[in-house]
Amino acid sequence: MKHFIFAVLLAYCVYARSEDDEIFAKHKGNTGFIKVTSLKDRLFYWFFPSQGNPNTDPLVLWLTGGPGCSSEIAIFIENGPMNLNPKNLSVSVNPYSWNKVANVLYVDQPIGTGYSNPVFSPYDNNVTQVSEHLYNFLVGWLAKYPSFKKRPLFIIGESYAGHYIPAASAYIVKRKHSDINFVSFGIGNGLIDASLQYPMYATYALSKKLISESTYNSVKKRFAQCRTDIELGDTVEAWYDCQGGLIQILGYDRLRFNIYDVRQPCSVPPLCYNLSYVGEFLEQTKIAKQIGVRGKSWSTCNVEVHEAMAFDWFINLRDDIAFLLDNGYPGLMYYGEEDFICNWMGGLEVANNIEWKGREKFQNASFQKWENFGEFKQEGTLTFIKVYKSGHMVPMDTPEAALNLFERFLKGWALPTRLAYV
Fold it and tell me: N or C: which end of the chain has fewer CB within 10 A?
């Protein structure tokens, strides 16, 4: 009888395991929560060990932007090990997953984002708070996974993470925690300095023939005032002038084009992509149970989190990037050429105006061909990449190029000449 019971239990465990493997295409990973505030606010994480050598490969922290958008978006439609079919919600293996070469840790942050709820503290309203909570998260996560202490750490993400990443990276470096071995940072299609990037909306839109010459002349003046407002610290007027110029380009009643990929129409405003199927997949009872989030709400992007960060929008993060570059931490900035909202022209304007030791040489550096994927310019610890045939979400639009970029990032694209600036 004992043997019969054991056989039944074994069969059940094998079945349950195979069902899990099928649901997540054998890439379930590890999920959980880490407390980050004294009021016990917790950040949700989803961790995928490297498919290469998890015992020696680096640790990579991925941050999605918004502000307030969940990193589960990246897991299922960008660079995670799973591709999610929107028609039948089935999961297949992503051959261009970034965890092929690294241990990748996705986090829902700031507090309130994705599964990082309920919220007990006030929502974060600036990058200093975000940085403190991310630092607390890392310290807590490393305590839970001690084998990753002192493992090379890379932080990378996209969009509004152009604010999070420089601030959090600089915060981590300055704290000098013995368990955290920070190496490098990467920003994809990031908003870093609105005062430089907003005026480039007009230039980019004209270059893509999205607006007429007369509209260009009109919005150019509006963005000049926008920049003045930001420099004066007048956030209220900045919102009025900056967004006013943007609306002139995008349209008053409906978006004239997909702001994340100008080659396409905006089919589902305001995000332009129908991402509801990600939520439909996650809200299934069997999925929620497997990832430990039963009873928790989830949204693609949290409006409350977004609104709380409104006055952080116009903060300039170039100084934090300069600090990192001058202290020998390589930085990678990559931009899909078809993105409007965080376009490559605005990104290059930021890169050219970072006040670091290599600024002049970087400005004078020529673009070089990057296989057939794009082009880059590099000096010392800073590399800027323009990715061909890609919009705002490079890993989604050009996954092969994104994986190639990511592998080069981990190997230190900017390392050959970095020592001159340490």
Answer: N
Cα separation, 155 vs 165, whole angstroms: 7
SS3 sequence, 20-45? Answer: HHHHCCCCCCEEEEEECCCCCCEEEE
Rounded Cα gap, residues 301 and 66, in angstroms: 7
Confidence check: pLDDT of 192 > 70 = yes
Please state whether the predicted TM-score (pTM) of the whole model is above 0.90.
yes
CA-based end-to-end distance of the chain: 70
**Residue 93's CB: how many other CB atoms inside 10 A?**
14
Q: What angle do CA 283, 285, 286 make, to 5 degrees?
A: 115
CB 107 within 8 A of CB 66: no
Active site residues: 159, 339, 392
- pLDDT (tens digit, 9 = 90+) per residue, 314-339? 999 999 999 999 999 999 999 999 99
DSSP 123: P
Q: What's the DSSP call for residue 69? A: B
Where does the pLDDT of residue 412 fall: very low under 50, low under 70, confident under 90, or very high at 90 and above? confident
> What is the spatial distance between Cα 304 and Cα 110, in angstroms, rounded to a whole number?
11
Q: How far is CA 307 from CA 68, 132, 254, 276, in A?
A: 9, 19, 21, 21
- Is residue 4 over pLDDT 70? no
* Coil, helix or strand at residue 184: strand
How far apart CA 79 and CA 403 sit, in angstroms, is 8
Core vs surface per residue 43-82: b (16+ CB within 10 A) or e: bbbbbbbbbeeeeebbbbbbbbbbbbbbbbbbbbbbbbbb
pLDDT of residue 110: 97
- Per-residue pLDDT at 329: 95
Which pLDDT belongs to residue 422? Answer: 33
Cα–Cα distance, 407 to 402 (Å, whole number): 9
Residue 155 has φ and ψ, to the nearest 5°, of: -115, 125
- Name which of 223, 236, 157 is nearest 194 in CA terms: 223
Find out whether 57 and 158 touch, Cβ atoms under 8 Å. Answer: no
Residue with tokens 């600024």: 359
Report CA dihedral (308, 140, 24, 100) to the nearest 10 degrees: 100
Place of tokens 């200093």: 128
